[in-house]
Amino acid sequence: SPYEVVEGPSKFSEKKHFESLDPGVYTFEWILKANEGWEGWSMPVNFWYQLHEKGEDEPAVKGEFTVAYCTISNEHYKGEIPIFEERPVSETESSPTSASTPAFTLAGTISILVLAFAIFRR
Asked: Membrane spanning segments where (predicted)?
């Protein structure tokens, strides 16, 4: 396997058995580590699941899905993954989202159109 399960409810080669799940939404998470040679590549990750009613051999629900083009990063993180927050833009700092930008663009566009109209009218 190109991955090693660092943390999660099961290893990929193992089955995970839950005795009972109450109705609701459940989230299962795995932290994976790429094995040597797979870092920096893209490959699909296939997930397969099935649910059985208690005492039944046949699954009540089963399915599978693929995460296509999963990129295997060659970056390694320890601890929590950093969260980047947007820094507020000061009044003196120019910004593409500044309130003055659209007005300047509109005024510039109108000026160019008036100039073009005047030149072609002659």
From this structure: 103-120
